[in-house]
Specification:
Elements (H helix, E strand, L loop, with lengths): L2 H18 L3 H14 L5 H17 L3 H14 L4 H13 L3 H19 L4 H4 L12 H7 L7 H11 L3 H10 L7 H22 L12 H20 L6 H9 L5
Helix pairs in contact: 1-2, 1-3, 2-3, 3-4, 3-5, 4-5, 5-6, 9-10, 9-11, 10-11, 11-12
Organism: Leptospira noguchii
Protein name: Tetratricopeptide repeat protein
InterPro entries: TPR-like_helical_dom_sf
């Protein structure tokens, strides 16, 4: 095997097994072997290796040393979301707010841009951030833009996953459970615009992807959703629910 293959085998095999078994002595030895072999590895792979050593240090009670390894991981691959997130967790346990917020910001930014993972969703339940629960800066950063209403949240989740027809179908199916119909129809309007852009680019053959019969059906849905939004505005039912969501998930597109 090449050195890269050896590192991958260690990283996704014995190292993971030893960490799951809480055998940190073995994990440390194996990670050191991986570090020694890692010179030809791409940055993202080196970052994963140093990240594992950071976890070993932390599990054995040396959070500060773990932070040093996380910094090495990020130096190897600056757009490495798990490294930034772990750094935020480690710094939070030490109460270093000035380091926590930038690390979290990068975890959120790179998590979404690299792999469409929204780290904000897990942060609210992460015990490491307990002391920051009432901090205004922290709360503003981790606000994911999603509504509390579960049915409406599901619609927004489909949009965030670029599944516009699923968003429309879910909203229609659970219409009676949604408490903000203005936001719902704004979401529908956004969803049908997504579909229209896809059809403009790839042609009507993609209608089948959305289980739509014709372009005229797209036009009809567009007009329907547009009128629903306009009518609710006339009745004074406007809310900023969808605008807040877009600002977080689709900045510059609303």
């Amino acid at each position: 095997m090449t050195e890269i293959e050896q590192v991958e085998a260690l990283l996704f095999g014995e190292i993971e097994e030893s960490l799951r078994a809480k055998d940190y002595t073995t994990a440390r030895r194996l990670v050191n072997e991986a570090i020694a072999l890692s010179a030809p590895c791409p940055g993202w792979l080196k970052a994963m290796v140093f990240h594992r050593m950071a976890l070993v240090e932390d599990f054995e009670g040396s959070t500060i040393q773990g932070i040093e390894y996380l910094k090495k991981a990020i130096d190897c691959y600056p757009q490495y979301p798990p490294g930034w997130y772990s750094l935020a967790c480690f710094e939070a346990r030490l109460g270093n707010k000035q380091n926590v917020l930038p690390a979290l910001e990068n975890a959120i930014k790179f998590g979404w841009s690299q792999s469409r993972v929204d780290y904000r969703r897990g942060i609210k339940n992460e015990s490491d951030f307990e002391t920051f629960r009432s901090d205004a800066d922290f709360l503003a950063l981790v606000d994911d833009g999603y509504p509390e209403n579960k049915a409406l949240r599901r619609v927004f989740e489909y949009l965030a996953a670029y599944e516009p027809m699923s968003a429309i179908n879910s909203g229609r199916k659970n219409l009676d459970q949604i408490d903000d119909l203005y936001a719902l129809y704004q979401a529908f309007e956004f969803a049908i615009a997504m579909i229209q852009r896809d059809l403009d680019e790839h042609g009507s053959r993609n209608l089948r992807l959305y289980k739509l019969k014709s372009m005229s059906e797209v036009v009809s849905l567009t007009e329907n959703f547009k009128n629903e939004v306009a009518n609710r505005e006339k009745r004074g039912e406007q809310t900023d629910t969808f605008a807040k969501f877009c600002a977080k998930i689709f900045p510059g597109k609303n």
